[in-house]
């Protein structure tokens, strides 16, 4: 059985906030969750193939039947599934069905790529230490929705994106990698979103590759890249 997560326990604590643990050593199977086009999913699939990772994207799962990214995945021979959140009256029921389908693919890593559903604490704990997300802001600034609009309203001079380990708190968790994008005079929400998204397509595949190569180390909630690579993309 492949070890999904190597954890060094101290004092009997082994949660995401435990003192020391190492992510992704070794891992092979990636499942990606999407809600729409899945452009970050596309970037990860391409990078995995072109860079010949010791991994495979084994499934792409959407919560919306019309998610365009499903066709992209299917065309490349990747298994797809839809767990429609609208047919589940309660979040817990949706989470349970989603987890059941995900577990059928035996993932070593679960990647949220524009997955627009809030996941419950039990679901998150089930995949603790092996689930990544990307958010279009420099977390902890501007969690949640409308990040670019809020950044412009606040007069931010730089924005960006953050890849982080998923924890039960929305858009929080140990930060793996960030991109920094300057705000230009005359920028509107659409222009800023487009430039940030372009950097997401670079940093997300890189962060996933670090994970699968066992190059991420978490200590006291802080992530370091064990080769000493920069965790800021400018």
Topology:
Elements: E1 5-8, E2 20-23, E3 29-34, H1 39-50, E4 56-62, H2 69-75, E5 79-82, H3 91-103, E6 109-112, H4 121-126, E7 131-135, H5 147-153, E8 158-165, E9 175-182, H6 189-212, E10 216-219, E11 222-225, E12 232-233
Helix pairs in contact: 1-6
Q: How many domains make up the 3D coordinates?
A: 1
The beta-strand count equals 12
Mean pLDDT: 90
Helix/sheet category: alpha/beta
Strand content: 25-35%
CATH third-tier fold name? Rossmann fold
Apparent shape:
globular
What is the name of the CATH architecture? 3-Layer(aba) Sandwich
**Largest sheet properties:** 8 strands, mixed
Distance between the termini: 39 Å
Helical amount among residues, as a percent range? 25-40%
Please give the radius of gyration in angstroms: 17 Å
Please list the strands of the largest sheet in the order they lie side by side: 5-4-3-6-7-8-9-12
CATH superfamily: Formyl transferase, N-terminal domain
Number of helices: 6
List the uncertain runs.
1-19
Broad CATH class: Alpha Beta
Order of helices and strands: EEEHEHEHEHEHEEHEEE
Keywords:
6 helices, alpha/beta, 234 residues, globular, 8-stranded mixed beta sheet, 12 strands, Rossmann fold, disordered N terminus
Task: Write structural notes for this entry.
The chain is of the alpha/beta class and 234 residues long. It has helices spanning 39-50, 69-75, 91-103, 121-126, 147-153, 189-212, and strands at residues 5-8, 20-23, 29-34, 56-62, 79-82, 109-112, 131-135, 158-165, 175-182, 216-219, 222-225, 232-233. It has one domain (22-233): Formyl transferase, N-terminal domain (Rossmann fold, 3-Layer(aba) Sandwich), CATH 3.40.50.170. It has 6 helices and 12 strands. Strands 5-4-3-6-7-8-9-12 form an 8-stranded mixed β-sheet, with helices on one face. It has a 4-stranded antiparallel β-sheet with strand order 1-2-10-11. Helix 1 runs parallel beside helix 6 (189-212). It starts with a strand and ends with a strand.
